[in-house]
Specification:
With 59 residues, the protein is mostly helical. 42% of the residues lie in helices and 0% in strands. It has 1 helix and no strands.
Length: 59
């Protein structure tokens, strides 16, 4: 048979569900910690500094 006939999905029921309204129910959205933003800013700054230094050396 074809390869597609050999593919099976198991363990996945219906992915939608109904939930009654509950004033105490809330979802928590993950937010990066401030140190993550600091690390990204530092990496971008070091990359920019390295790029400028590389361009100055090439000129």
């Amino acid at each position: 048979g074809s390869v597609l006939s050999q593919v099976r999905f198991e363990g996945y029921g219906e992915m939608s569900f109904w939930q009654e309204y509950d004033a105490n129910y809330s979802r928590i959205t993950p937010v990066p910690e401030p140190s993550t933003y600091g690390a990204l800013l530092m990496a971008a700054g070091l990359g920019f500094f390295g790029y400028r230094r590389w361009r100055a050396k090439a000129a």
